[in-house]
């Protein structure tokens, strides 16, 4: 590995890293919103909602992410909806991971002690208020570890957006390697940059887990 090559390649990869972060944030927000909606639908007493949400989750989980990206980028425009490669990447990853987020949220909500819900009902709280003030805050603490893992997975799988020409970090690395044949240098740098993006996220989630864990212990004393 030559320092001159590293100096030349780094700015290009850094621009790709910025797009990688943008894709990750956009996909994470979209998957969170869709996942919460699907989780609440699956837990709904209305059977049609539960069945619909369950079917959507199973279909999404049964399809490879790359196929979903291809479908959104190549097929949707044929229906008259024009999307940029970046938009297709965010939407595709967001939808793909919404199914996993839905299962995370569902498990967190179902883990809440039913006695707390009954107690809230006994003092006249409405269902929406119970969900907002009693269930969701506690479910958030429970789902934080799998949510953090999902966030890291989205960051890593953002590299799949390179298959639909999004100029994110992996795509930038591929183009550099193809033109310079410096495969060892380029892909080593790429691996280290993904690690540099992932580790702060992992450490941040771990700190939040410890923080909320202390809060739960303190509340129980």
Sum up the structure in keywords:
221 residues, 83% helix, mainly alpha, MetI-like fold, flat
Care to describe what's here?
It is a multi-pass membrane protein. It comes from Litchfieldella anticariensis (strain DSM 16096 / CECT 5854 / CIP 108499 / LMG 22089 / FP35) (Halomonas anticariensis). It is found in: Cell inner membrane; Cell membrane. Its main location: membrane. The protein is mainly α and 221 residues long. It has a single domain, classed as MetI-like fold. The protein is built from eight helices and no strands. Helix 1 runs antiparallel to helix 2 and helix 2 packs across helix 4. The longest helix is centred in the first third of the chain and has 40 residues, at 3-42. It is flat and about 70 Å long.
Chain-wise SSE layout:
Blueprint: H1 3-42, H2 47-62, H3 65-75, H4 85-110, H5 114-122, H6 127-157, H7 169-180, H8 183-220
Helix pairs in contact: 1-2, 1-4, 1-7, 1-8, 2-4, 3-4, 4-6, 5-6, 6-8, 7-8
What is the straight-line distance between the termini?
56 Å
What is the CATH class? Answer: Mainly Alpha
CATH superfamily: MetI-like
Beta-strand percent range:
under 5%
From the spread of the alpha carbons, the general shape counts as flat
Describe the main β-sheet briefly.
none
**Count of beta strands:** 0
User: Per CATH, which architecture?
Assistant: Orthogonal Bundle
Count helical runs: 8
CATH topology: MetI-like fold
Give the C-alpha Rg. Answer: 21 Å
Class by helix and strand content? mainly alpha
Order of helices and strands: HHHHHHHH
Helix content: over 70%
- Summed over residues and divided by their number, the pLDDT gives a mean of 88
How many domains comprise the coordinates?
Answer: 1
Stretches where pLDDT is under 50 for at least 5 consecutive residues are 215-221
């Amino acid at each position: 590995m030559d320092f001159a090559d590293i100096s030349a390649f780094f700015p290009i990869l850094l621009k790709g890293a910025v797009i990688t972060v943008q894709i990750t944030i956009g996909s994470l927000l979209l998957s969170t919103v869709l996942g919460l909606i699907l989780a609440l639908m699956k837990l709904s007493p209305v059977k049609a909602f539960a069945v619909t949400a369950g079917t959507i989750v199973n279909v999404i989980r049964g399809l490879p992410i790359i196929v979903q990206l291809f479908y959104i980028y190549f097929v949707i425009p044929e229906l008259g909806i024009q999307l940029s490669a970046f938009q297709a990447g965010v939407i595709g990853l967001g939808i793909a991971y919404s199914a996993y987020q839905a299962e995370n949220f569902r498990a967190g909500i179902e883990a809440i002690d039913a006695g707390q819900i009954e107690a809230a009902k006994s003092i006249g709280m409405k269902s929406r208020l119970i969900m907002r003030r009693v269930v969701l805050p506690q479910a958030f603490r429970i789902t934080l570890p799998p949510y953090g893992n999902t966030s890291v997975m989205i960051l890593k799988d953002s590299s799949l957006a390179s298959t639909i020409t999004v100029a994110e970090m992996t795509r930038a690395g591929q183009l550099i390697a193809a033109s310079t044949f410096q495969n060892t240098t380029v892909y080593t740098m790429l691996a280290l940059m993904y690690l540099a993006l992932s580790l702060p996220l992992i450490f941040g989630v771990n700190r939040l887990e410890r923080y909320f864990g202390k809060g739960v212990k303190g509340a129980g004393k």
